[in-house]
Write a structure and sequence with these properties.
Number of helices of chain A: 12
Radius of gyration of chain A: 25 Å
Largest interface: A-B, 58 and 58 residues
Number of strands of chain A: 24
Oligomer: homodimer
Strand content of chain A: 25-35%
Shape of chain A: elongated
Distance between the termini of chain A: 20 Å
Structural class of chain A: alpha+beta
Largest sheet of chain A: 9 strands, mixed
CATH topology of the largest domain in chain A: BirA Bifunctional Protein, domain 2
Chain lengths: ~425, ~425
Amino acid sequence: MNTTLRQSNLFTKTRKEAPSDEVSKNAQLLIQGGYIHKEMAGVYAYLPLGIRVIEKIKNIVREEMNVLGGQELIMTTLQRKELWAKTNRWEDKEVDVWFKSKLHAGGEVGFGWSHEEPIANMMRNYISSFRDLPTYVYQFQTKLRNELRAKSGIMRGREFIMKDMYSFSSDKEEHDEFYSKTIEAYKRIFKRIGIGEDTFVTFADGGSFTKFSHEFQTIVETGEDVIYINREKNIAINEEVLNDETLKELGVTRDELEKVNTAEVGNIFNFGTGKCAELGVEYKNEEGKKIPVWLGSYGIGITRLMGVLVEKFSDEKGIVWNEAVAPFEYHLIVLDNGNEEVRADAERLFASMETRDISVLYDDRDVRAGQKFADADLIGIPKRIIVSEKTLASGEYEVVARATGVSTFAHEQELLND
Amino acid sequence: MNTTLRQSNLFTKTRKEAPSDEVSKNAQLLIQGGYIHKEMAGVYAYLPLGIRVIEKIKNIVREEMNVLGGQELIMTTLQRKELWAKTNRWEDKEVDVWFKSKLHAGGEVGFGWSHEEPIANMMRNYISSFRDLPTYVYQFQTKLRNELRAKSGIMRGREFIMKDMYSFSSDKEEHDEFYSKTIEAYKRIFKRIGIGEDTFVTFADGGSFTKFSHEFQTIVETGEDVIYINREKNIAINEEVLNDETLKELGVTRDELEKVNTAEVGNIFNFGTGKCAELGVEYKNEEGKKIPVWLGSYGIGITRLMGVLVEKFSDEKGIVWNEAVAPFEYHLIVLDNGNEEVRADAERLFASMETRDISVLYDDRDVRAGQKFADADLIGIPKRIIVSEKTLASGEYEVVARATGVSTFAHEQELLND
């Protein structure tokens, strides 16, 4: 990905009006800013600015997965019926989000909405002895889900990018240790992405294998989930498991809890040895005895995170990205009014930033100042540098923070040494 | 992606025997080496070593697309019936590789086997004036095709990664200029990837909009295509358009041509103004007149390229990657035989290489020398560094080229200054 871009070369354009067929703020602003394009309800393309944000988020997640010892791979979209039938997750009455199609060569295929089954099944090729464990793999995969409704923009799509990691451990202790380490890694990720304080490790339904799973729920007004939190005790409970038993177990009473709307940005799930037993993923221990492997599954919704950020960090003028995920660090705006010296100064500054690999979108377009400012507000890059007759005269550039609107002034060297 | 990796941490293992259900050399070797996993016929997952090769190829292609002024985006897998019906490419009798499914919300969706229609349609939002042209966009997309047969491993899959670029130009001259520049960019790509000399710009069927399209065909014994070439005149003709008219037009006779088997690694296609006229992609020229846009489409099969490389560059021992696409530049092999000094020397060298971001896979496993060598031959990393009692005594490391088997000796500083 190029570090710099001339806005005159960017094919996307901003739109003043929100698209009439979108009710969610994230989709409205992202479409207006030229980040995404709606192909159909719940299905969005990611345009040059959008793909940059996605890659930034992915790289933060990738770094933390690598720290955990995760090995990146990429599974397939096409899925075999026979495999999912083994764990009773093929039929529509069991899993209601499958897209399925007929193969011209005969038979049926599904389209990956999740990848526990194919990953665990594949690992049978590579796990046979206790020496092969533990092992951790992850992928960034486009998931397809046949959702009945899709009204939350990129917060719940029929097609979306997810990071999913899987842990294969030899026993409960090894499993639990990694499970806890992943919770810490997830906390680091959400902190780096800028939603650490509003994201809660939440007790949720554990499905058939364990009592609880853990969700990472971020407070956002338009979130589709409801959880109950106690900030002091740092406890969060999904409403689906809010009952006397849970309250007692967690040592909290109903009136100590605050009800909030949230979006699930991550979840971690303990399959115990159940899933691997179903699929025949076993290892031989030191005594040569065959034992099913402990499986954990750890998701983060990459595109959903992007949507949550827009929902939480935007104002009446547009999006407000933080530096960790912004498509560019700087938005360089030249207001030349036909003054060739001003234009030349901006070009020179841009060239110097390019040389130093400073991340900058350069608004070199021949349009009015008002439009440049409105577009910059909508696009939401954290720091705006203004080059004008005024700044040329003063020898300092104006730097405006998108989040606060506060102006400071900086010499060229300060900007270049950034 | 990490620059270095300890082989003891790699979850994949090599296999001595080729899988019995694969007839193609590329799939056999890539599965044996732990690069890919077969999910079903024509559908492969890419494991840690495989994803590294894919990313190397993608980055070479990406660099050249950016040089052309291409802007990266990512379209969607899910496709709208209504859009493709407009250009008569929805019905199975018109396009026989569609996967289709029912939407729970009602209606049908297709799964992207190509993206001309959605990209051109989307560009209606961004192209209105002559000032918006020319513009070039590209993506790396996982395409899904319901192929009846799939016997060529990753050279023809039901699920595969493709780079597709699209040019939008205001007139024939602008279109032709970019078309020619792309041919040159493609030549650079195939040269960088190591198949430049065996890849021919080939005249092929142009479909409904032009007489010829241009394919990039690479000579490979197991290729599914047949073309006729004349190396001196630098002419190549796909058998599908080999007729008297074509021969006359290109100034070559039948007996001057050599018949070769090839794989199509790229193609470029001129839609003229036809496709944009069908979809209503128009711009206003300087006189305010609405004119349909010239469309070009430019594909490169990323996963197919990986398959072609394996077919062409392998021997009885395994794969022979070139440096441009190899998963790692060096394969560091320690033969310690329990000698702690040898092990310590290898660890120290690995740490020094890590510090310098030198790309290296370190075989730190506790297995026999014979197995390490066999695995290294199969995996096919270009340069093997051997650390043993002999090298420790001599003060020089042995460096063996995978392609030639030739050994040279190098001091640590020579390796680190690489």
